[in-house]
Amino acid sequence: MRIEVLERGGVRIVECVDSIARTDDALGLVTACVENDAPRLLLTSRSLPAAFFDLHSKFAGEFLQKLQNYRIRFAGVFLPEQEYGERFSEFLSEAKRGRSFRAFTNRSDAEAWLASE
C-alpha cells in the first residue's frame, strides 16, 4: 500500500494514497503509522471503496474499528458535492464531532485537526 508521510506543526501524519479494497487494509495502515512514528492517518473519499459508503456492508464500521483499536487518530476528507446517501450522510454529520475519527469537507481542516492535541 502506497503512503506518504506529512509533517504538520511538528506532527507526523500518514496519508494513504492508494485505493483501499479490504477492511484488513486498515492493519496495513496501522503498520505504516507505527513504522513512521505517526499515530495519525489521513484518508480521502477517493481512496475508499464503494462498500465503505454503504453502511449495510459494515465495511466502514469494521475498517474504522480496527484503526481505533490501535489508537490511530484519523481524519477523512469527504467531498461535499458527492452523493453519499441519507444514512451515510447522517454518519458523516455525527463524525464531524468525533474524538478519534473526524470527517471534513476540506483537506486543510483535516490536517489542522490531526496536527492538534
Write a structural description.
- This protein is 38% helix and 22% strand.
- The protein is an alpha/beta fold.
- It has a single domain (3-115), classed as Transcription Regulator spoIIAA (2-Layer Sandwich).
- A five-stranded mixed beta sheet has the order 1-2-3-4-5, with helices on both faces.
- Strand 1 and strand 2 (11-16) form a beta hairpin.
- Helix 1 (25-35) runs parallel beside helix 3.
Task: Give the SSE map.
Blueprint: E1 3-8, E2 11-16, H1 25-35, E3 40-44, H2 50-53, H3 59-69, E4 73-77, H4 86-95, E5 101-104, H5 107-115
Parallel strand pairs: 2-3, 3-4, 4-5
Antiparallel strand pairs: 1-2
Helix pairs in contact: 1-3
**pLDDT under 50 segments (min length 5)?**
none
Please name the CATH architecture.
Answer: 2-Layer Sandwich
Query: Helix proportion of residues, in percent?
Result: 25-40%
Structural shape: globular
Number of strands: 5
Strand order of the largest sheet: 1-2-3-4-5
Task: From the 3D structure, determine the CATH topology.
Answer: Transcription Regulator spoIIAA
Strand content: 15-25%
Written as H for each helix and E for each strand, in order along the chain, the element string is: EEHEHHEHEH
Major sheet description = 5 strands, mixed
The gyration radius over C-alpha positions equals 13 Å
Q: How many domain units? A: 1
User: What's the average pLDDT?
Assistant: 93
Structural class: alpha/beta
Distance between the termini: 28 Å
In the CATH scheme, the class would be Alpha Beta
Number of helices: 5
